Amino acid sequence: MKGKHIVLGISGGIAAYKSAHLLRLLVKQGAEVQVVITPNGKEFITPVTLSALSGKPVVSEFFTANSGEWHSHVDLGIWADLMVIAPATASTIGKMANGVADNMLVTTYLSAKEHVMVAPAMDLDMWAHPSTQRNIATLEADGVEIIYPASGELASHLVGKGRMEEPENIVERIREYFGRAGSLSGKKVAITAGPTYERIDPVRFIGNYSSGKMGFALAEECAARGAEVALIAGPVALDVKSPRIRRIDVESAVEMRDAALREFADADIGIFSAAVADYRPETTAGSKIKREKRDNMTLELVKNPDIAAECGAAKRPGQFFVGFALETDNELSNSRSKLERKHLDMIVLNSLRDKGAGFRTDTNKVTIVTREAEKSYPLKSKREVAADIIDAIQL
Ligand code: PMT
Question: Would residue 364 show up in a list of annotated catalytic residues for this protein?
């Protein structure tokens, strides 16, 4: 952690007293820490304590009173190798999830260029409330790493989930993050994501339910580990966050194949997470097909290219290719046959029989299948699943 720049965000909860210990541990590990505290946070712990421990003035307001000096959240966002918000109250989490930039902490979060971790702390009912859970899901989908609260006695003397994770464990998560962070630097990763649309006429298409969330989570995770990422995306309503991701938008399987043949050729890691339409209409009507003219309609379909199989057949030694399998039956045997047929090194199996897995959800439940072994994981956020997949890749 030596020399790493960490912004420690502190919001107004009783667990703020633990932030002093967290700060001390980070400084002891050699990190340079800049504290940003909300106005309510200062009611729980004084800036004097925090600046004495960090060796830096604590930032809380947009301006210093009297001198009129402006504190630049943009500079802080660029300076930080990591932002950790501990404790994060329900209010701060809600503001972060919705971009309510009415204090220095949330404004700095919105300017942060690198990874962000959040350690929530609140009473059990607030934690369990649907709005908090919705906001947490939004943050996870935005690529924020949540250090989930532990169970135990809370400040209210109620017992349940909501205690901020202990500072030692937060430091361990930060150490793990920095360990991962540079693990793909100098590597190129190519990823296909989302559905493909196969045009029937100017207003209709054949498509599927893929949202692109799994592929985008993989792209963000690879970029967070230092890789340069080419993300070939079908039509999805998602944004890319990391500047290390180069996005190539396509619509059809044929367009995706053409981009993939270019991008996967020199990639160290290739990941095929797109749900590609296996067939497309043989012809596309030039103008809208009118229902008044027909009682029945038959679409003649032709087979689309198998992108993973084509790229797999051209795979060079040293490249590692990962496919997905979306199955409803005979999951493992179908996965293994795809592994061989498409010349892949690994298959990530997700089953539509598992609740919370597959299309559109923010979570997934996967089994990672290689020639040698298979390992099943519990239901996790798609970002955490992405981390498990990258951890399993053997370069
Ligand atoms: O996008 P989300 O809403 O987050 O959903 C994620 C997901 C369910 C789409 C994703 O996790 C997933 O399973 N993607 C692969 C879906 C799929 O098409 O599976 P398949 O078993 O039909 O294909 C096997 C593999 O071959 C896949 O890696 C697929 O990308 C690839 N393929 C398939 C057909 C084709 N013509 N070209 C391909 O490259």
Answer: no
